[in-house]
Amino acid sequence: MCNTAKSQEKNDTTQTEEVVVNAYPDKRKLLDSPLSAYVIDKKQLQNQPSFTMVPALNTVAGVRMEERSPGSYRLSIRGSLLRSPFGVRNVKIYMDEFPLTDAGGNTYLQSIDPGSFSKLEILKGPQGSLFGANTGGVVLINPFPKRGDSALANASITGGSYGLIHEKASVQKRFKNYQFSVYEAYQKSNGYRQQSALDRKYIQATQRWDYHKNLALKSLFFYSDMNYQTPGGITLAQFNSDPQLARQTTSKSPGAAEQHAGVINKTVYGGIAHEANITSRLRHVIAVFATHTSFTNPAIANYELRNENTIGTRTYLEWSGKNEGEVSWKWNLGTEWQKTYSSITDYGNNRGTADTVQDSDNLNARQNFIFTQYSATIRKRFIVEAGLSLNSYKYNYQSLYPVYESTFSNRQFNPQFMPRLATTYKLKENLAWRASISRGYSQPTIAELLPSGTALNTNLQPEYGWNYETGLRYQNNRISIDVAGFYYRLQKAIVQRENANGASYYVNSGGTNQAGAELQLSIYLIKPRTDGIVKSLEFKNAFTYYHFYFYNYYLNNVNYSGNRVTGAPQTTVVSSLSAQFAKGFYGYVQHNYTSNIPLNDAGTAYANPYNLIQLKAGWKPKNLKRLNLEFFVGVDNLLNEKYSLGNDLNAVNGLYYNAAPARNYYFGTGFTF
């Protein structure tokens, strides 16, 4: 499902072929696709630090990834951070055919090691017609290696500032009709701030068996053991005087270090998928998967234990045809079903030790949807897609303490249709216009219905809205330009707030008006070549402009209508320059400008704009036969900016700021055999 580009570089100077989007029902060239999509390929990932996903994802217009402290990821597509104080919500994430997002709406993206996948495909805007409930978008991760060499082994190690160590190694082997890969990684960091250390162990295995010319079986397994500390937010005065501080002890509450605040997340995931090309026109895919997460969260106000188990399946049929070269078409029909069982207990936190029980509940969520989509290409010039899904979601809950209920109570949300209509028209061979209209819908997640330290909120409603979009794409062998404009009116938007104790809770706002413009540019200033000192020179730019405002938003008799949407910068510009030189040397520089960010719904506090510059340089010696070596060094935050990469929105007492690292360095080496 998420093999997103068919090109691979044969050497440092081979030009990348045209990007292909493989978010079915159609594997298409990006130029022909009605999707608002972007592909981050292996080459782009190699330009970035191997130990974090943040810089790579932030090169995409409309995408914002934050890391409040090492391992504490937040991901936003077109402003969806509003409801995500931590983690990933409102965005659906898949690893190949397997949903990483559980039935309760949570995605533990931080559990995945950044080196364990080769490509990312990002679909912006609601994609419910194929992927179920979401209002932000979809991320497709490809964990399967390229079906290439018969045997391949590689390893690397990176060290850096603040005690950083990141080691990874993998082996893949291909036989006649069978291929497997094993990947392992270990990462450790002391962190820039107090109480911000990280320790993660990760192992992943994939396999594919083409046991018949028309039949294939593949599987994915990973285990992640992650422990990261959470320093918590600090005030502006503390941020300015000593940004490395963790949340401090006050007369009303203990501090993060005193409470040993952090997260221990142990997740095991397994899935098997079968693909059958029944005829030349009919294809069937079915996947089954299961996951278990043990989640421990000593926090400032409490100590939470969660045990979550998810099972599910996804299956679809694909039927295709052609009409004498005039019309080619594909039609998909499928369904996805998941159920997540959660056991959640909150204790008092006595300096990092679970104390007396405060609350205990069982909460189970079930979501399923049926989807269909028809796609047609007329005379290789006009492309139209029409999709529709019917989404069903319910949860049941049982209180165990302080009040024991012998039976479960149920809450069923009304089934929701999520249509999408999109088209592309090729004005010229290299120029295409596209337009789409789609409906987004996202029910409250388990973590929002029952946040740590608060009671179950049975009044929280789903958010929903319509997205309208148009854009132009131009591509040739030197330049790629993608410009888009959209308007999204979201109703009953889910907003995160904090109570007096600093515990999160969630409310429905009236809604948000979200108008935006995005530009993605790539140009070869020097096209790849075999002679000269400079073998290639490529410039990339991602420009994002948001005009996001609340409307009809009243809370506690206060009117927030007309205020900018919390957590969303109005302007972001990310530019980069990558160069390949003679003798195997290379260099990369990236600049990120982010404008000020509203920190509360009232619009009375803002994070300052910032400019980030990161550099990476390396050497890959030539003529080593089957052994490829690499040596590299890098610098992050070259200008030594003081900024917060992941603010605590609507935090009480002005505890908004989570300071990002000052200027820091990394270096390492690796080999492929």
Can you offer a commentary on this structure?
It is a single chain. With 673 residues, the protein is mainly beta. It is 3% helix and 56% strand. The protein has a 22-stranded antiparallel beta barrel. It has a 5-stranded mixed sheet with strand order 3-8-9-6-7. The protein has a two-stranded antiparallel sheet with strand order 1-2. A hairpin with a 6-residue loop joins strand 1 and strand 2 (28-29). The longest helix is centred in the middle third of the chain and has 6 residues, at 236-241. The radius of gyration is 24 Å and the shape is globular. The two termini are 29 Å apart. The model is unreliable at 2-16 (pLDDT under 50).
